[in-house]
Design a protein that fits this description.
The protein is mainly α. The chain has one domain. The chain has three helices and no strands.
């Protein structure tokens, strides 16, 4: 079992956020993407590809 602050946990949250967004559940998608972004920023740093991707996706969700 992965810890709540593992990069793979962040990746799972990111994927769940994308699925929820596709289903139209933007509030839950945003919440999951925010959690993923927090994990990526803490563990991988602000310039890591996963951090940047999560930040980009979150920005897109804020326009929906």
């Amino acid at each position: 079992m992965l810890s709540p602050e593992h990069p793979d946990t962040g990746l799972s949250l990111h994927c769940l956020a994308m699925l929820l967004a596709e289903q139209g559940d933007h509030a839950r998608a945003r919440a999951n993407e925010e959690r993923a972004l927090a994990i990526f920023e803490k563990l991988l740093g602000p310039e890591h590809a996963l951090t940047l991707r999560a930040r980009e996706e979150l920005a897109g969700l804020n326009f929906v």
